[in-house]
């Protein structure tokens, strides 16, 4: 497969590189375990710096599409979970409002934390730059059924004084002119540990629906990384597909 970058395009090089890598790793040979070309070869073929190449690779590693092994190389991870990109997605509040479900906030906490290496790679920031962390425990009036942890890119400009009782993406647009445009999600089934079990008022090792949401603005720059833990008996995730 011939790879090429348009160096005259207004689209940033790392975004073009990411798109090419996604196309490359979708091919059967890489899905079947073939190692990606080494960084020196790839950067030379694309006529880009290794730093630019690593930006794109780091994003795919963070999304769980690639894995790096020292002394071996980079390869595609066999996908065991569902990944969905929906055109018409909503915040949790908007989803529940559309279904006529009354929602209660049982907990809402804001703090500033240092990102771990994976989160810093996703946001493309250094690990000693704090990010805003938003924790919410939500559910129906009779009890919680979802626990959320959200982390926001410093570029968004959150201060912690915003009205977090508003639907999240409505608040971002209203107070910071940030439009959440793209959501990439990963869904998997896990067993609740002690912390999640206590939050959701269930038994330890009860089944939980775990959703990772990667949210981007119109320029496909990352703005939010969200983790959601749902009671298995309180939530159904539906994906609607339409043939072209």
As residue ranges, the low-confidence spans are 80-86
Helix-and-strand structural type: alpha+beta
> Rg to the nearest angstrom?
20 Å
Rough shape?
Answer: globular
| Number of H- or I-type helical stretches | 8
Q: Mind describing the biggest β-sheet?
A: 7 strands, antiparallel
Strand tally is 9
Proportion of residues in β-strands:
25-35%
Elements, N to C (H/E): HHHHEEEHEHEEHEHEE
For the termini, the CA-CA separation is 25 Å
**Average pLDDT over all residues:** 86
The strand line-up of the biggest sheet is 3-7-8-9-6-5-4
Characterise the protein shown here:
The chain has 244 residues and is α+β, with helices and mostly antiparallel strands. Helix content is 28%, strand content 30%. The protein contains eight helices and nine strands. The strands form two sheets. It has a seven-stranded antiparallel sheet with strand order 3-7-8-9-6-5-4. The chain has a two-stranded antiparallel sheet with strand order 1-2. Helix 3 crosses helix 4. The longest helix has 13 residues. The radius of gyration is 20 Å and the shape is globular. About 3% of the residues have low confidence.
């Amino acid at each position: 497969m011939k790879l090429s970058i348009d160096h005259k395009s207004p689209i940033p090089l790392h975004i073009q590189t990411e798109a090419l890598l996604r196309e490359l790793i979708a091919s059967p040979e890489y899905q079947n375990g073939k190692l990606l070309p080494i960084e020196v070869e790839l950067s030379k073929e694309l006529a880009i710096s290794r730093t630019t190449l690593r930006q794109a690779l780091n994003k795919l590693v963070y999304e769980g599409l690639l894995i790096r092994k020292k002394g071996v190389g980079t390869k595609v991870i066999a996908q065991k979970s569902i990944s969905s990109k929906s055109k018409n997605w909503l915040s949790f509040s908007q989803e529940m409002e559309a279904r006529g479900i009354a929602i209660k906030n049982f907990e809402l906490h804001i703090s500033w934390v240092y990102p771990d290496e994976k989160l810093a790679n996703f946001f493309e920031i250094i690990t000693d730059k704090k990010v805003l962390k938003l924790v919410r425990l939500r559910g129906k009036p009779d009890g919680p059924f979802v626990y959320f942890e959200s982390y926001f890119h410093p570029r968004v400009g959150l201060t912690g004084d915003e009205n977090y009782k508003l639907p999240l993406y409505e608040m971002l647009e209203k107070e910071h002119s940030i439009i959440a445009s793209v959501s990439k999600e990963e869904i998997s089934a896990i067993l609740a540990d002690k912390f999640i079990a206590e939050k959701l008022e269930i038994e330890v090792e009860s089944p939980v629906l775990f959703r990772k949401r990667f949210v981007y603005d119109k320029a496909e720059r990352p703005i939010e990384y969200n983790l959601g833990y749902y009671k298995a008996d309180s939530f159904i995730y539906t994906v609607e597909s339409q043939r072209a």
